[in-house]
Amino acid sequence: MAQIELSVQGMTCKHCVAAVEKALREVPGVQAVAVHLDSNNATVEGDSLDVEALVQAIESEGYTAQAR
């Protein structure tokens, strides 16, 4: 299983965290997601993860992201 760390910008509340988590869980291959508001960080675990698909999922919710 692979693990990818993403920096997420634009989150300001628990609703933001929930939106990012939901978007990431919908990406194929994702098995676990942890999003942290205090560090603006998301950790994604899964098989055959596509970093660009993860970033696009976050950006589709109105936030910006990049791989760490």
From TrEMBL:
Claim: Nucleus is one of the keywords in the record: no
Name of this protein: Heavy-metal-associated domain-containing protein
Keyword Hydrolase (UniProt): no
Domain HMA as annotated: residue spans: 2-66
Record Pfam families: HMA
UniProt keyword annotations, A-Z: Copper, Metal-binding
Naturally occurring in which organism (per UniProt): Acidithiobacillus sulfurivorans
